[in-house]
TrEMBL record:
Gene3D superfamilies per the UniProt record, alphabetical: Dihydrodipicolinate Reductase, domain 2 (3.30.360.10), NAD(P)-binding Rossmann-like Domain (3.40.50.720)
Annotated keywords: Oxidoreductase, Signal
UniProt keyword DNA-binding, yes or no: no
Similarity field: Belongs to the Gfo/Idh/MocA family.
Species of provenance: Discina gigas
Full protein name: D-xylose 1-dehydrogenase (NADP(+), D-xylono-1,5-lactone-forming)
Length: 344
């Protein structure tokens, strides 16, 4: 639905999007109905992904399937010569992501992990505030995404959120967002020469299906530390009183970002010192859900002949996948061999 919105509704004049086709592996009718539901009834419907990736009128493919399927489906699209935007998490593990990145680079095709949060004007603004030294040297980031859902009643054990066969679990699904905040503030804002992979420690609690349901990741960078937490069961902001989802803490003050970490619409700058001038910024999404900004970013890359986005660089996607791999290895949490596999 965000793709069919007129970009002018968000002040964007330099790119437009056309939903050209959609595919369902389940049935042609499902694809057809999907196109009607999203407001693109005249686009082409396909009953298989192979037909979609071979459509010469399609410029780029957006993959939004369960995590377990991203790797083979990205390979399918790239091998058909199509640029790809793939939902988060990119793949089940970093080795799979590296294979995709190498394939895209070899074929000179655009590839991007669809982390919509990074493309929000609010995120861009906060990254600039950090680079400008607004809160001094940023030393610590604490970020959380916890949804306060009862998984026993909300999710059948086969649901992608809790099903190990679909690479379910909190870390890959929700944990990616607090990690995004840690990385986009403590890593992405640094000059390239100062970027270094963090050391990782953490903990997870498991659900009866075997996936993680509460997760804590501690990322120790050379001169800062980030803590990313996520849970299905507890709440980031239980009273809904605006308790911040993310605290970006610098030597001169902190930036507090609203819940939910995936699409925050406001933040507060709190300088150090009693009686200091607190500044509040509201950044509502002008129309749609806010997934259009990442689509605009991808469209600009295609238009300009870029092979990757500098907002969500491929090497940073790999690093974040490696972070999640490290934590899972420390906690002895593996997915079934067939979906961890790099065979395709
Ligand atoms: N950016 C964001 O805010 C959000 C991102 N996501 C991400 O989007 C992706 C999809 O999530 P979501 O839409 O909730 O997923 P769904 O479970 O709704 O599945 C999406 C599609 O994937 C296919 N699919 C579903 N189950 C299976 C299966 N068992 N095996 C093979 N294919 C299957 C189906 O397509 P078909 O008709 O072809 O069978 C289905 O329509 C995930 O990566 C998730 O993390 C999800 C929600 C929000
Ligand atoms: O990406 C996401 O953001 C919103 C959540 O509700 C969803 O489970 C997740 O996939």
């Amino acid at each position: 639905k965000d793709l069919v919105l007129d970009p002018k509704t968000r002040g964007v004049e330099d790119v437009v999007h056309v939903v050209q086709a959609a595919a369902s592996a389940t049935s042609f009718d499902r694809a057809k109905q999907f196109l009607v539901d999203v407001g693109a009834p005249s686009a082409t419907a396909y009953g298989s992904y192979v037909e979609l990736v071979n459509d010469p009128n399609v410029d780029i493919i957006y993959i939004a399937t369960p995590h377990s399927h991203h790797f083979p489906q990205c390979i399918l699209a790239l091998n058909a010569g199509k640029p790809v935007v793939c939902e988060k998490p990119f793949t089940v593990n970093a080795e799979q992501t590296k294979i995709l990145v190498n394939l895209a680079r070899e074929k000179k095709l655009f590839l991007m992990e669809a982390v919509w949060t990074r493309f929000f004007p609010l995120s861009i603004e906060i990254r600039q505030l950090i680079k400008d030294g607004k809160i001094g040297d940023v030393k610590r980031v604490i970020a959380d995404l916890s949804l306060c859902q009862d998984p026993e009643t909300k999710y059948d054990d086969s649901h992608r959120m809790v099903n190990p066969d679909l690479a379910g679990g909190v870390l890959l699904d929700l944990g990616l967002y607090p990690l995004t905040w840690v990385y986009q503030t403590l890593y992405h804002t640094l000059p390239d020469a100062e970027k270094a992979a963090p050391t990782i420690t953490g903990a997870i609690s498991k659900y009866h299906t075997g996936v993680d349901i509460e997760t804590v990741v501690v990322c120790k960078f050379p001169s800062s530390v980030g803590i990313a937490t996520s849970s299905v069961r507890v709440a980031t902001d239980p009273e809904e009183t605006g308790y911040p989802a993310i605290k970006i803490q610098g030597t001169k003050g902190e930036i507090r970002v609203d819940h939910p970490a995936y699409c925050p619409t406001g933040y507060t700058i709190v300088p150090v010192g009693k009686g200091s001038k607190v500044e509040r910024f509201e950044r509502p999404i002008p129309a749609g859900k806010g997934m259009h900004w990442e689509a605009d970013g991808a469209a600009r890359c295609l238009r300009d002949g870029k092979m990757e986005s500098d907002v969500m660089p491929l090497d940073e996607s790999i690093l974040i996948m490696e972070t999640m791999d490290t934590l899972r290895a420390q906690c002895d949490f593996k997915y079934p061999a067939n979906i961890e596999s790099t065979e395709h």
